[in-house]
Automatic annotation (TrEMBL):
Upper taxonomic lineage: Bacteria, Pseudomonadati, Spirochaetota, Spirochaetia, Spirochaetales
Domain of life: Bacteria
Entries under InterPro entries matching the protein: Cu_polyphenol_OxRdtase, Cu_polyphenol_OxRdtase_sf, Cytotoxic_necrot_fac-like_cat
Family under the similarity heading: Belongs to the purine nucleoside phosphorylase YfiH/LACC1 family.
Keywords: Hydrolase, Metal-binding, Transferase, Zinc
Catalysis: reaction(s): adenosine + H2O + H(+) = inosine + NH4(+); inosine + phosphate = alpha-D-ribose 1-phosphate + hypoxanthine; S-methyl-5'-thioadenosine + phosphate = 5-(methylsulfanyl)-alpha-D-ribose 1-phosphate + adenine; adenosine + phosphate = alpha-D-ribose 1-phosphate + adenine
Protein name as catalogued: Multi-copper polyphenol oxidoreductase, laccase
Amino acid sequence: MSFLTGNFFYNGKPLSSAPLWGMSVLESGNMRFRWNETNSVRDNFFSSICAEKRKIAQPELIHSKTVYEVSSADEIFKKKGDGILTSNKFIIPAVTVADCMPIFVYDKNSNAFGVLHSGWKGTGIVKEAFFMLNKKYGSNTDDFCFVLGPHINSCCYSIDKDRAEYFAENFGSECVSFIDGNKYSLSLADANLFLLKKIGIPDGNVFVSKECTCCFKENGAFKYGSFRRQTSSLPQDLPLEEKQKHFTVQTAFVFYSF
């Protein structure tokens, strides 16, 4: 089963003692998750990763800034939100993404870890996760490590003036660029880097993936599923629930390799 995996970084160096982050790719299949549905593709994917006694902990996404911190996977049952944190090494926190940014979190002090789903509506969720762990464990800013995973980059993410002004006002002017007319480009990476810098996270503790889920190809083929790319030919007035049948959702997760 194909998926990406990578390290967290501390002072610019990979942490061998930390968990790994992972993300499925297009050829892995659709990882859509709803509490009222079954998805054999997703189930088979995680069964190939989960060792005995490990459990997946995943909320159903609602494009919010809601984060859960749990000690047992059962605590997340039927919950809806966009982030999951834990210090239990036998839990695999997971979210789904399809152009939105997966943000992977690790606290070197407490060994807490997790993953967040950060789309345009949920930009700022990284602060919620930081303050949640900071309050519980008292960790310093330089104890935290973040990975901003593959997502739609500014090359493919055009927005209107109102949204551009919202982002410039709340997440720094560098995250938006004027294209023409009423069009601007948005960098989710720069918006989140602005927040992490404001919190005080050292640059050496942050890794940013440069691969765009909308346009990046590997060996001539698209590597990722993408809401924007895969639904671009559909009627604009098609309901979202119908559009969701036409793009490949990925799963992003954090796990210990033991």
